[in-house]
Amino acid sequence: MIQEPIKSLIPLFEAVNEDIKIAKEALNNLEAKYVRLVLETMKLGIKDE
Fold first, then answer.
1. How distant, in Å, are the alpha carbons of 1, 9, 25 from that of 38?
2. Under DSSP, is residue 1 helix (H, G, I), strand (E, B) or coil?
3. Which residues contact 23 (CB under 8 A, 6 or more apart)?
4. Residue 3 CA from chain centroid, whole number
5. Better pLDDT: 42 or 49
6. pTM
7. Integer Cα distance of 35 and 28 in angstroms
8. H helical segments located in the chain
9. What is the pLDDT of residues 9-47, one digit of tens each?
C-alpha cells in the first residue's frame, strides 16, 4: 500500500540527484576558473614588482 507512492517518488529523487551532480560540476568549474584568475593575477603582480 505504501510502496506505490514511494515508487512514484523514485524518478523525482533520481532527477534531483542528477541536478545535484550538474550543480557540483558547475561549482567545480567555477572554482577552477577562480583559481586560474587568482594565479594569473599573482603572475601579473610578480611581473609588476
1. 56, 43, 20
2. coil
3. none
4. 33
5. 42
6. 0.64
7. 10
8. 3-48
9. 999 999 999 999 999 999 999 999 999 999 999 988 877
